[in-house]
Each structure stands twice: as structure tokens, then as C-alpha cells.
Amino acid sequence: MEHITLLIGIVIVTALVFDFTNGFHDTANAMATTISTGALRPKTAVAMSAVLNLVGAFLSVEVAKTISGGIIDEASGIRPEVIFAGLVGAIVWNLVTWLAGLPSSSSHALFGGLIGATLVSVGTHGVHGEAVVMKVLIPAVAAPFVAGLASMAATRLTYRLARGRDEADTAKGYRAGQIASAALVSLAHGTNDAQKTMGVITLALITGGVVAPHADPPLWVIASAGLAIALGTYLGGWRIIRTMGKGITDIQPPQGFAAQTGAAATILASSHLGFALSTTQVCSGSVMGSGLGRKGGVVRWSTAGRMVAAWALTLPAAGAVAAGAAFLAGQGTWGVAAVAVLALGVCGAIWAASRRKPIDHTNVNEGPAAEPVGVVTAALRAVSPPPAGHPAPAVETPAVDAPADAPVPAQAAATDTPTTTAPRAQAATVTR
């Protein structure tokens, strides 16, 4: 066995940086609903999630095996610089979607980066197409629907069981259940996402001849990957937490409990089977399912549409960045250095842009601007009005011009929805 070279060392460090970005990018998966309903304080929530991510990293290595020897053929001439380029593509896409507050898939960013870099460096024979379809693409399509349907059914069952009971008493119980289910999601996230970085580091060690092909990740790899994702989780991806907790639907404690329980069951089952699915897509699908499961609850489809678009772009976008990085890194030592410098410059620019409108634990629960009523939203509210005691969240109707002294209609005065827009000199009055 050879010693770890400087290039392999760079790959290992880059993989841990990706693991760190994965941590703060995916904190929302476990804690967004818990924070948005007030079940836990923001800093307490991310601290608990970080600890359980670390614990989960030690529970299984099945997903790591899928990464290190399932998707990419390590015997096809894969070199450490190829893995480095793939990681750069994944990190850049993670940071771009974090800046936009979109809960895209860190897992698919990693897969796309590795696939794009491999295609440029060694060709199509370096990628196991069947494994990509069976263990990446099919779970990517199926998992959000499965989790969403499970969450929708659980939400309806939850509200039915609590029918006629005091809302304040049931809310306390559901908040306690949310804490338990959030802990389970965090543990499940560690068993799935932390292993992906383990698999990448193990793949780099295999290509460098440090460990034998098809070997399990060494203990130090498991520990370092678990620590990196835990640290990223503790820092909190507040932008994405806001989107998932407040931007998709208005979540009540029973919905949060149902969504997190359904997501945890899906993730743990996939980890056991070795499916490296996107925990982000699972948790986002669960949140949408909880919105549809509550009578009167409405999903903000514009936000959901942007999320789905990001999901569809993740594999090709990360792959394209990684392909360019692989081409440059393939030119030699100067190419690897150039990729590193460019990556640092892009990451620095994204961080600087995020400081213009910072989001942290102090303002994470400030909801997004009201969304105009669309055809789907109006139809859902028409056939499924909110139950007594649960008024529908206020949304803005398309504005129409009206004279400054026009009276507010009686119907509008009795609701939270303004129906006219007065000139700037006089603000529209909404009676609450």
C-alpha cells in the first residue's frame, strides 16, 4: 500500500469541506418544521441535530459502499484529480442553492459532480449506468412522492385522532413528538449523507492504492466525515431552514410531527437498502404532503416549483462545473492549482453576496411575502376549507386600481385578504 500523497490529501480535505457544506445545507431537513412551530429554539435545534448526525455516521456503511464502488468504476483509471474536480462541482452548486435558499440535493450534487468529472476524464465506461439508474435516479423520483403520500396520510390521521380535543393540550403533545421525530430524522441523515463523504474519501484512497478495492471506510474516515457534517449542521443553514419551515406551507405542530416521522422512516429504509437518495427531497416532499394533508392547508406552489426546478438542474449543473474542473485539472499540477484558486474565488464571492441580506437564528422564522392566489390554491380552498378555529393563512389577491377614497367592501373588512390597492399616499386598511 502506498502512503497518502499530497494530491490525495487535498482530495480528502476537499471532501470534508463538501461534507461541511452538506451539513449546513441539509440542517433544514431535520429541524425546519421543529423551529417554525416553536417546538425547539433555533440554536438548541441545530445543536441536537449536529450531535445525532455524528452518532448516525457510525451506524452503517452501506451507502458509502454504493459511492466508493457502485456508481463510479474505480478500476477504470479514475485518478484523485478527477474526484477533486467532482467535489468542486458539488461544493459550488451547494453554495449557489444555499444562497438562493433552495433546498436542493447535496447528494445529487455529489453524484453529478463525480459523473461529470468521470465522463470527461475516462469516458462513459467509467460510470456504472445501471447503478446510477437504480440507486440514484429512480429513488430521486420515487422518494419525494412516497414520503409526501406517507406524510399526507399521517397528517390526516393525526387531525382525525385529535378531533374534538383541546387544541392547546394536543399542541403540547405534538411538539414533544416533533422533537422526537426531528431527532430521528437527524440520526437518519447521519446514516445516509455522512456516508457519502466516507465513500468519496474511500474512493480516493482506493485510486491512490492506500486501501484495497471494495474495502470498507477506515475508522478515521468515518469519524472525520461525521465530525465535518456535525459541525456544518451546528452552524445552521438558516436560509434553507426559512424556506422549508415557512416558504412551502404554514406548518402546525401535528403537521410537523407527521412530516418528520414519514421522512425519517423513508430515509432509514433507504439507508438499510443502500439507496443513496436525497434526504432533502424526502423531507421537502414530506412537508408538501403535510400541507395537502391538513384540511384548509395550502402548499405555496411557486416555491415548490422553484424547488423542483433546482432538483432537476442539480445533476447536470454540478456535472457541468465538475467537467470543466476535470478538464482543467487534467492539464497537470498547474491545472489542479487553478481549479483550487477558482473554486475559492467563487465560494468567497457567494459568501460575500450572502452578507448583504443575512439570515440567522434571530430572523429565521420571519415568513416570506404573501403569495398571490393561483388557480390551484383557489381550487383547493374551495373544496377543502379550513376547520373551525383554523383560519386560512392570508394571501394577496391580484391588485386592481381603485380611487383613494373608495370604501373597503364589507366582506373584505371581515377577512385578512385585501381586495384593492390604493395609491401610495394612502395605505390600504385591513381589519383584523
UniProtKB/TrEMBL annotation:
Region span, Disordered: 384-432
Q: Which InterPro entries match?
A: Phos_transporter
* Designated name of the protein: Phosphate transporter
Topology in the membrane? Multi-pass membrane protein
The answer to whether UniProt assigns keyword Ribosomal protein to this entry is no
Q: Read off the Pfam families from this record.
A: PHO4
Q: Which organism is it from?
A: Streptomyces bugieae
In terms of superkingdom, the source organism counts as: Bacteria
Q: Which UniProt keywords apply?
A: Membrane, Phosphate transport, Transmembrane, Transmembrane helix, Transport
Task: Provide the taxonomic classification.
Answer: Bacteria, Bacillati, Actinomycetota, Actinomycetes, Kitasatosporales
Q: Where is the composition biased (Low complexity)?
A: 391-432
Residue stretches in coiled coil: none
Q: Does the keyword Manganese apply?
A: no
Q: In which compartments does the protein localize?
A: Membrane
Q: Which family does it belong to?
A: Belongs to the inorganic phosphate transporter (PiT) (TC 2.A.20) family.
Transmembrane segments in this chain: where? 6-24, 45-63, 83-102, 109-127, 133-155, 197-215, 221-241, 308-328, 334-353
